[in-house]
Design goal:
Elements (H helix, E strand, L loop, with lengths): L6 E7 L16 E2 L2 E2 H10 L6 E6 L4 H8 L8 E2 L4 H12 L4 E6 L7 H11 L4 E7 L4 E2 L8 E2 L5 E3 L3 E4 H10 L9 H7 L4 E5 L10 H12 L2 E16 L3 E3 L2 E3 L3 E3 L7 H13 L5 H4 L13 H13 L3 E10 L9 H12 L6 E6 L5 H4 L3 E13 L3
Parallel strand pairs: 1-4, 1-6, 4-5, 7-12, 17-18
Antiparallel strand pairs: 2-3, 6-11, 7-10, 7-11, 8-9, 13-16, 13-19, 14-15, 17-19
Helix pairs in contact: 3-5, 5-6, 8-10
The chain binds cytidine-5'-triphosphate and magnesium ion (MG).
The site of cytidine-5'-triphosphate has 23 residues, from strand 1 and helix 3.
């Protein structure tokens, strides 16, 4: 795909997002279940033509950055400057060497792979290439009253990523006069006499600039998702001399449950419900009882594993409804604790978790106090093509 050429993607995320407002800069806001920046990172990390991704962040954004990108395979971020141009220049310097670079705004979360394909193909023939779209609206000079119309023939809307051969764009940035600003790198390339090709951009690449754009991005993302439901069910028998764990919470009770792991029947049901939403088999498939590693294991690990599988597929957990079935212990006093614990494990709000408990009117094995059963229903949204 990249013809043996080393291609680095540079994502600039050092802005303050003042026009978009909000508590955190727009690139760290969550859209479609993950940070805006994480969408851009994932699109570039997974593209076969890209060898590595480097992110430029603002001073003091280290914590927000780490929360946004989690365990993704990225080098330490570079600290940017006061303007986008300075941030790019610092990122280019930190790359040190490459054949090609794709310079992308973190504020453009949805990057179709085809746009990157077109840019890289154009770079075979030109030192620079950018995605652009035609302008549909009438253009005019504004103000309090309408000014002159601006003919839109031949005008385009310029997007990112912008692709360049590495040496020439580094030289162009160095040659750019200090103190003058540029809103993108194509301007800087052209000022240095580089020929910049135009390829077809994509409406999904729209930049998040104003507050409403975050909602538009959320809607654009939601339109690509479908809802899936998964059901989980589990039973464990009581055993003397064991601790009782339910929903990740230690319960004060004379008897615990028998099992290979900590026998947290409620978390096992939640795990299976989540696995069910993505057709990933069941808990025994992922954590075989024959495997000594899971002996006495904290079942929180199983839930976290299922959550990470859902997230790896671009899924969002919307809701989990858990029912614990037993005569004793009484679940009521632990309900809030279990709810909070499961919300933490799934990284959702407590309002997205429901905890119910019931007896079976002294009927059956739960009625006789021989064990505890649990069932859970998980609702997630996943990309349509999953
Ligand atoms: N950017 C940057 N360093 C800066 C300014 C901007 O890396 N000093 C990045 C932003 O994080 C964003 C991209 O450049 O991903 C495009 O800039 P813009 O949309 O203007 O973002 P902000 O500068 O953050 O927003 P605002 O201008 O509204 O404050
Ligand atoms: Mg800005």
């Amino acid at each position: 795909m990249n013809g043996g050429k080393h291609c680095v993607a540079l994502i600039v995320a050092a802005g303050r997002g003042e026009r978009a407002g909000g508590d955190v800069p727009k690139q760290y806001r969550r859209v479609g279940g993950k940070a805006v920046l994480a969408h851009a990172v994932d699109a570039l990390l997974t593209h076969p033509g890209v060898n590595g991704v480097l992110v430029v962040i603002g001073a003091g954004q280290e914590q927000a950055y780490r929360e946004a990108v989690g365990g993704r395979p990225l080098p330490e971020p570079v600290i940017g400057g006061e303007t986008r141009r300075e941030s790019v220049a610092r990122g280019l310097a930190a790359i040190g060497g490459a054949d090609r670079v794709l310079i992308h705004d973190a504020a453009r979360p949805f990057l179709p792979a085809q746009v990157v394909d077109r840019l890289l193909a154009a770079l075979d023939r030109h030192p620079g290439a950018i995605p652009a779209l035609p302008i549909a609206d009438t253009l005019a000079r504004g103000g309090d009253v309408l000014g002159d119309m601006v003919p839109r023939d031949g005008l385009v809307r310029v997007q990112t990523p912008q692709a360049f051969r590495y040496g020439p764009i580094v030289a162009a940035h160095r040659a750019w006069p200090a103190g003058r600003e540029a809103t993108d790198d194509a301007q800087i390339a052209r000022a240095a006499g580089l020929d910049v090709a135009i390829v077809t951009g994509d409406a999904a690449l729209e930049k998040i600039t104003f507050g409403d754009d975050v909602m538009t991005a959320e809607a654009r993302f939601a339109a690509r998702l479908v809802s899936r439901t998964g059901l989980g069910f589990d039973v464990h028998a009581f055993r003397d001399g064991a601790e009782l764990w339910l929903g990740g919470v230690r319960i004060d009770h004379p008897r615990g449950l028998a099992g290979h792991s900590d026998a947290d029947v409620a978390l096992h049901a939640v795990t299976d419900a989540l696995l069910g939403t993505i057709g990933e088999g069941d808990i025994g498939l992922h954590f075989p009882p024959s495997d000594l590693r899971w002996k006495g294991a904290d079942s929180a690990r199983f839930v976290e594993h299922a959550r990470s599988l859902v997230e790896a597929r671009g899924g969002i957990i919307d809701h989990v409804d858990l029912t614990i079935i037993c005569e004793r212990p009484k679940i009521g006093p632990y309900r809030n604790g279990i709810r909070a614990r499961i919300a933490t494990l799934l990284r959702v709000e407590e309002g997205q978790i429901s905890i119910k408990a019931t007896t079976t009117e002294r009927l059956g094995f739960t009625g006789r106090g021989e064990g505890i059963a649990a069932q859970a229903v998980a609702t997630v949204r996943v990309p349509k093509d999953l």
